[in-house]
Amino acid sequence: MTDQRQKTGRLRLAPENFLSEEEVAAVASQGASGRRDFLRKSFMAAASAMAAPVVAHAADGDPNILGNPPWTTSLGLPVAANPYGMPSKYERNLVRRESPGLTRVSAASVAFTPLQGLFGIITPSGLHFERHHQGWHDVDPSKHRLMINGSEPGFLKQAKVYTMDDIMRLPSVSRIHFIECGANTGMEWGNVAVPTVQYSHGMLSCSEFTGVPLRLILEDCGVDFKKCRYILAEGADGSSMTRTIPMEMVESGEVLVAYGMNGEMLRPENGYPLRLVVPGVQGVSWVKWLRRIEVGDKPYATKDEAVHYIDLMPDGLHRQYTSIQECKSVITTPSGGQMLLDTGFYNVTGLAWSGRGKITRVDVSFDGGINWKTARLETPVLSKALTRFNIDWIWDGKPAILQSRAIDETGYVQPTYGQLRAVRGTKSIYHNNAIQSWKVSETGEVSNVQVL
Ligand code: MTE
Questions:
Q1: Residue 25, domain member (yes or no)
Q2: Does residue 34 register a pLDDT over 70?
Q3: Which CATH number does the domain housing residue 262 bear?
Q4: Between residues 30 and 277, the one the model is more confident about
Q5: Distance, CA 131 to ligand 1 centroid (Å)?
Q6: In 25, 290, 330, 399, which residue has its Cα 20 to 30 A from 439's Cα atom?
Q7: Which 8-state DSSP code applies to residue 90?
Q8: Is 284 in the pocket of ligand 1 (CB under 6 A)?
Q9: Same-domain check for residues 245 and 388
Q10: Which residue's CA lies nearest to atom 23 of ligand 1?
Q11: Residue 322: what pLDDT?
């Protein structure tokens, strides 16, 4: 451990973005500044070289910290007091959040994943972002059906209707993949629009999905794969969510009819009891409450692919069927709304992903893109999944601009805003994968800025 590391930097969440006034008061009265302060204490306690700061902290807060707090001397709660385990009450600020006023009604809105507070690559199911076009339902699985049919006679041997029991008897696979809404970071096309990574990048989650490869089900119905080069997936909710997916994606075996997420059944908000998993493709194609698949010989141009999820290009034309999520990354800590409380060592961490395969490298800049250093990619590094990266940083107290730039296995390099806008203009809503910049001011405040 270096001298500089002993001078451990402190980080805290800016209360105006993350805590209600009441919660700030509660936390302040405990003499703690929230999750990051707790982390700092654990880190210090774990490092014998840092015995002195621990003592110093005990003195400025609760003298019982190194003594006998009640949990060391009394009987704890019984097992199953909490039959379905919930996070600690001290973590109650880490929740999905809606951006007020984003849509006219909440049922057609989005609740963003708090990326700033997560570790590793798996999103806890209760924090998986939710995006609905017309609200969500807790669908009774005994009443749910999946129908497979063809748009023309002769496209399959037999149209079939599957119950959940039928589907769960079929051979299953489990795979870890990210899901990102095509509109993620969409508010930032013109200029800086939101203060935190939760709102700028939080339409992004990564889970282990369990289900049946769609190819198996189509084979079971005797689909003519030569004639049928597209499928149409339809959801059971009132939004009439329908999306075309090219058959080659289904043939690859990657597209799943999934019922499991992170070891249990899907959560209702995420499509319980059945959703489509289309790895690498924008979230809208991951049809929830999946009730019908039609096989056909051409793209369907439904409302959700002709009017929505299209890109307005600089020449005024709309680009349709941009479905694969290009390589992208973001630093999640430190990020907008957080605060560095003093100079010294920080672990800068973030996420990288690509809809075209694995991440091969992430570079990080601390000076707005002039100099770059290669970050550590943490295992596992999986195809079409989030990849966690970390890099050491000593903050000297001077203003800094933090950026990350990801490269995927196709050799594609995440673009700057300047490069992206040169091709796409500024009028798009969807598919913004530009390099994100976080400015650290002399006071330690971290804010969202754009660097061309
Ligand atoms: N499927 C149905 N049936 N209805 C919907 O509103 N929203 C889509 C997609 N599938 C949607 C749907 C959109 S736009 C996205 S980004 C993802 O679901 C979000 O999935 P999640 O809510 O599990 O995060």
A1: yes
A2: no
A3: 3.90.420.10
A4: 277
A5: 5
A6: 25
A7: G
A8: yes
A9: no
A10: 270
A11: 84
pLDDT digits (tens, 9 = 90+) for 435-448: 999 999 999 999 99
Which pLDDT tens digit goes with each residue over 299-315? 999 998 998 899 999 99
Closest residue CA from atom 2 of ligand 1: 288
Q: Single out the residue of 83, 100, 93, 99 nearest to residue 118, CA to CA.
A: 93
Q: Express each pLDDT in 178-189 by its tens digit.
A: 999 999 999 999
- Is the confidence at residue 15, as pLDDT, over 50? no
Question: 259 and 385: one domain?
Answer: no
The last residue of one of the domains, among 264, 295, 319, is 319
The pLDDT tens digits of the residues spanning 332-351 come to 999 999 999 999 999 999 99
Structure tokens at 394: 């000593």
C-alpha of 409 from chain center: 20
**CA of residue 5 to ligand 1 center, whole Å:** 44
- Residue that is written with structure tokens 């204490």 in the block: 41
Q: Is the CB of 235 under 6 A from ligand 1?
A: yes
Q: What's the domain count of the chain?
A: 2
Which amino acid is located at 190 in the chain?
G
Most ligand 1 atoms within 8 A of CB, residue of 288, 291, 309 to mutate: 288
* CATH number for position 431: 2.60.40.650
Judge whether 283 lies within some domain.
yes
Contact 392, 9 (CB under 8 A): no
Question: What is the arithmetic mean of pLDDT over 183-205?
Answer: 95
Domain range enclosing 375? 15-30+325-451
Q: Based on the fold, state whether residues 288 and 177 are members of the same structural domain.
A: yes
pLDDT digits (tens, 9 = 90+) for 217-233: 999 999 999 999 999 99
One domain, residues 342 and 294: no
Protein residue whose Cα sits closest to atom 11 of ligand 1: 132
Question: In whole angstroms, what is the distance from residue 120 CA to residue 349 CA?
Answer: 10
Are both 390 and 312 inside the same structural domain?
Answer: no
- Ligand 1 near 258 CB (within 6 A): no
Q: Look at residues 293, 319, 345 and tell me which one is the last residue of a structural domain.
A: 319
User: Which of 14-28, 152-166, 251-265, 420-434 is predicted least confidently?
Assistant: 14-28
Residue type, 20: S
* Number of residues in the chain: 452
* Predicted model pTM: 0.88
Spacing, Cα 130 to ligand 1 middle (Å): 7
Percent of the chain with pLDDT over 90: 79
Q: Please report, to the nearest 10 degrees, the dihedral formed by the alpha carbons of residues 382, 354, 351, 367 taken in order.
A: 130
